[in-house]
């Protein structure tokens, strides 16, 4: 759904700043993207952000660029996607192009190495922060928690390809959703059946009253008793109609 209130220039400037001042790659940018787009500008919701990150991670390419493309497309369609992508890529391209002429001199510079050591430590914190925020937005059910732990364990301690982890997780999510929906429908049908059965069951007091009247008639009670029974039956009939 396009948002005409956000101009293409605003998209470009926003993602240009994000691309220029974010160190550490796409995962480090996730926390900054959420802070800028969700908390400050409120262009998208937290759920939108989570969905876009999942899509960006599941498709080829850099996660930061893919996310920028998704946000741009959501805000202003195809042109928005192009502008947002250019905005986030252009700063890195210009900086790397300029540094490429003197990369050897920078690599041997002690100040350069010390600065990037500190940046790497901060980037790790940003990535952990982004992970915590995304984890909080997950559904708090047993399936999601178990899948999160298992996927993390496989990715962290094995050489299993992350792409296959994502694909398997998606397939398991679809299967779980179908099973959950099927169980929910069965419970709903069962509850409807119980409700209809309850409505069709006769009133206990009415049945007892009819039995007493029949007993009195067969025992030879007088006409007044019979008339009283008829009146009682009419009242019970009115209750059932209501």
TrEMBL record:
Membrane topology: Multi-pass membrane protein
CC per GO annotation: plasma membrane
Cellular localization per UniProt: Cell membrane
Listed transmembrane segments: 12-33, 78-103, 109-132, 163-179
UniProt keyword terms in alphabetical order: Cell membrane, Membrane, Transmembrane, Transmembrane helix
InterPro entries with a match to the protein in the record: CHR_Transporter, Chromate_transpt
GO terms for MF: chromate transmembrane transporter activity
Pfam families from the UniProt entry: Chromate_transp
Entry's family note: Belongs to the chromate ion transporter (CHR) (TC 2.A.51) family.
Protein name in the entry: Chromate transporter
Organism: Candidatus Fimimonas gallinarum
């Amino acid at each position: 759904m396009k948002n005409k209130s956000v101009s293409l220039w605003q998209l470009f400037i926003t993602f240009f700043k994000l691309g220029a001042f974010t160190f550490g790659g796409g995962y480090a940018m996730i926390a900054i993207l959420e802070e800028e787009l969700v908390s400050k500008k409120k262009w998208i919701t937290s759920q939108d952000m989570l969905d876009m990150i999942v899509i960006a991670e599941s498709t080829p390419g850099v996660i930061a660029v893919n996310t920028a493309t998704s946000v741009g497309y959501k805000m202003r369609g195809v042109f928005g996607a192009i502008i947002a992508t250019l905005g986030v890529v252009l700063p890195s391209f210009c900086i790397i192009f300029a540094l490429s002429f003197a990369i050897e001199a920078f690599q041997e510079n002690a100040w350069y190495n010390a600065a990037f050591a500190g940046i790497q430590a901060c980037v790790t914190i940003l990535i952990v922060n982004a992970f915590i925020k995304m984890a909080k937005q997950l559904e708090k059910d047993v399936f999601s928690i178990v899948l999160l732990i298992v996927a993390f364990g496989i990715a962290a301690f094995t050489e299993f390809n992350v792409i296959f982890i994502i694909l398997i997780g998606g397939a398991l999510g679809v299967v779980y959703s179908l099973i959950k929906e099927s169980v929910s429908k069965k419970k709903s049908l069962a509850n409807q059946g119980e409700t209809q059965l309850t409505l069709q069951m006769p009133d206990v007091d009415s049945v007892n009253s009819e039995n007493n009247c029949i007993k009195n008639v067969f025992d030879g009670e007088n006409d007044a008793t019979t008339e009283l029974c008829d009146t009682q039956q009419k009242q019970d009939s009115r209750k059932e109609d209501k």
